[in-house]
């Protein structure tokens, strides 16, 4: 068990025990398990090799109708159990920037795939996730058609948590802020910011800031996301 860490406090010392129901997370104490229950509860079910935890990224209309309408970003992300035969694994598109910094994500939009454009189906976070590394623009079809609600998963099929996806989206937003600075004035190409080291430092700081705001799910971590 030496390689396991407590899912709440990240302690790697002493004995950690698996959740008795799902056997997918570990805790060093009952106190940590209880404190982490609000985060783990939606994902607590026995592991199946045919299923992956991903995120349903809600479009504007679906977000407005959801129960969690607490903010522009948190209300958009919903945990979704995705079967291995879901189109995201067959026809989903790689988010290329995420591959450069070490957490390759796949995103699937039925609307973009079919060329459907309907009112209320805007989804800015989805478009931001799909930007290309060289110019910071999403492919034309992601700009021409409103993508609607999308499914996002990790290509390595590890569970994708809402806090992780939020940090990734925030990192992409930060990259886009600097996309307009001209290299002729001495600014580095934006692609040079898309490294594992840059994201690791950014995500650590982002989690710390969210924890200061008392947001659930943003506990400090000792290993990269």
Automatic annotation (TrEMBL):
GO terms for molecular function: DNA-binding transcription factor activity, RNA polymerase II-specific; zinc ion binding. InterPro entries: TF_DEAF-1, Znf_MYND. The keyword Metal-binding applies. PROSITE patterns: ZF_MYND_1, ZF_MYND_2. The keyword Metal-binding applies. One of its GO terms (cellular component) is nucleus. Residues 6-44 form the MYND-type domain. It comes from the Eukaryota. Keywords: Metal-binding, Zinc, Zinc-finger. This is MYND-type domain-containing protein. The lineage of its organism: Eukaryota, Fungi, Dikarya, Basidiomycota, Agaricomycotina.
């Amino acid at each position: 068990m030496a390689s396991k860490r407590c899912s709440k406090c990240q302690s790697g010392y002493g004995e950690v025990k698996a959740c008795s129901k799902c056997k997918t997370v570990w805790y060093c104490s009952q106190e940590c398990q209880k404190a982490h229950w609000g985060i783990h509860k939606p994902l607590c079910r026995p592991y199946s090799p045919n299923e992956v935890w991903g995120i349903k990224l809600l479009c504007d209309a679906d977000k407005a109708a959801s129960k969690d309408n607490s903010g522009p970003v948190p209300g958009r992300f919903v945990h979704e159990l995705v079967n291995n035969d879901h189109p995201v694994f067959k026809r989903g598109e790689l988010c290329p920037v995420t591959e450069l910094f070490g957490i390759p994500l796949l995103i699937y939009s039925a609307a973009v795939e079919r060329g459907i454009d309907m009112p209320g189906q805007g989804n800015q976070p989805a478009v931001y996730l799909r930007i290309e590394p060289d110019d910071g623009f999403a492919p034309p079809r992601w700009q021409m058609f409103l993508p609607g609600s999308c499914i996002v998963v990790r290509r390595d099929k590890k569970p994708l948590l809402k806090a992780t996806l939020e940090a990734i989206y925030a990192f992409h937003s930060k990259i886009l802020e600097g996309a307009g600075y001209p290299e002729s004035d001495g600014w580095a190409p934006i692609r040079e910011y898309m490294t594992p080291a840059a994201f690791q430092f950014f995500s650590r700081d982002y989690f710390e800031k969210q924890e200061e705001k008392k947001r659930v799910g943003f506990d400090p971590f000792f290993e990269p996301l």
